[in-house]
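User: Quick one: structure for sequence A, then sequence B.

Assistant: Sequence A:
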Amino acid sequence: MQIIKNESINQIKARIRQQTLKTVDPQVENRVADIIATVREKGDVALKSYAKAFDDVSLDVLKVSSSQINQAMKSVDPEVIAALEKAAANIRSFHQLELQTSFEDSPRPGVLRGTKVTALSAVGIYVPGGTAAYPSSVLMNALPAKIAGVKNIIMVTPPQKDGTNPVVLAAAKIAGIDSIYQVGGAQAIAALAYGTESIPKVDKITGPGNAYVATAKRAVYGQVAIDMIAGPSEIGILADDSARPQDVAADLLSQAEHDVNARAILITNSEKLAQAVSDEVDKQLLTLPRVDIARAAVDSNGFIYLVDTVDDMIDLMNVVAPEHLEIQLENAYDYLAKIQNAGSVFLGKYASEPLGDYLAGPNHILPTGGTARFSSALGVWDFQKRIQYLDYSQAALSDDASDVAALAREEGLEAHARAIEVRQS
């Protein structure tokens, strides 16, 4: 990994910001626009055509049958089923704490104010396919929606020549997903946003995907809600001499193996650790099955920043705003209060990032590319909406009428003022 040293904090910040600049490929945008338009016009016919063109799969029906799902449950290794069920239990227990409740108050006689919290009606979750299966993403998307009270959860996932991955179907069964469709890419996002003969229109789309999926989500936002525009996976690690180089290297590679564009960043005040981690990454790469992907990510987006103090380390990491942040410092919890920007934080040498990916309970669908500066992990709150309400008595209205009218006329909105004053006569 490239070690960056002898640069000022401001120089490193500028470097980091340059690395996180986002660009949109106009060719991808144009292709996605064509796909969305075709799906809106031709519906299921377009989806089946794209399945053949992009995935080399011929489909008679898009929906996965209940018998296929049940068969998948039987075919999966019982040890894997047990792990999925344990993960589901942990995810439920964690996200149950996020439930928001309705409230109302009466600040004075004759005035009632409140907010009604209600679940979205229908949600579409996108589960990537292709080079790997992600049953964990099924659980992370669906279970918070279930806890929120969403009545119709629809899953889409790219079609496979040998059928949808049984472990993905098993996870969907465990999560209580209502229906599953074999459709992926931008065409899946279009189908969820606008509906087809088979796939109903939803209120919100969640889940990560490739550049086409991300671009399509951006394009349909406003027609439906979305969780976020997810980019390549990333990890940031704060570590000093107390950290073990082999642990740090392994955790950096745990994200580098996702994607050639994944980012792996270590910020440390120890030159000894920096060099040891760089050497250990090279060593561990040699035995990884996905070595080509991980090596490309490390070569392009793997950096070790060497600075003077722990405060400098934290300052820089708040600029990185990583999707996953590990704090491998002595008394790691003591530094949590100083972290302003991160998707999910892993404290101490034993809280390795894959715990969050699979089992511990916090969500692994997280803001990437520095967007943790203003956005958060997927949670129950993403599947709830709030409706405000207000009730006034005649006497309470009389008390406030002149103030409302004054403010309305100040803004040049006479009809607003009259709507209040008409009730005073």
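Sequence B:
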Amino acid sequence: MSFVFPPSAPVAVPVAGGGSLPVHRIYCVGRNYADHAVEMGFTGREPPFFFMKPADAIVAVPDGETGHIDYPTLTANLHHEIELVVAIGTGGRNIAAADAPKHIWGYAVGLDMTRRDLQNEMKKQGRPWCIGKAFDQSAPIGPVVPIASTGELLTGAITLAVNGTLKQQGDLKDLIWSVNETIEQLSAAWTLQPGDLIFTGTPAGVGAVVRGDVMEGAVAGLGTLKVAVR
């Protein structure tokens, strides 16, 4: 095949213990913790909804290192959202929730960075809010830990501190739609592929960061993700 210019390099995330996981697509679940739904003005267990980020929004941060993101353009209200990320290893369509763990390759700690002011403006206008979610460097992520090492993650603390001050704190057991249910719902709408990443939602406490801030997120069993805003 002859390309008119060189193709972009593949996007990959480091794997704990060595190697890299190639990224296919990034799916994100909206308002998937009840306390976060409340702080965003919603209540109850509404049907799950999804949005996407481009694969090259990934900022891969190796274990023990500090990643960096640039403060994005067009916003004055950049928010942090700490999330458990699920990496799909075996694709499929119409996957039953009971079978979902067989399709998981591993887990990682991720940040769904959000230009909240732009997102809110698009919501008011009834327009898509990709500009608030799918911008450059909006998906920092730590190493993927194989499910073979962690077992299925059903409970465990998920936290985020900014400059050493705790801002977000929750537990995976409080997901409105569990990881397995999310995979079931997603695979009814899209054919999941190896390398798909699912950002599973964030607990309450989202808030703004500015240049110079350092975010440190953690999920029990997966270690920490440290990211500084330039």
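The mean pLDDT is 95. The radius of gyration is 17 Å.

User: Thanks, that's what I needed.
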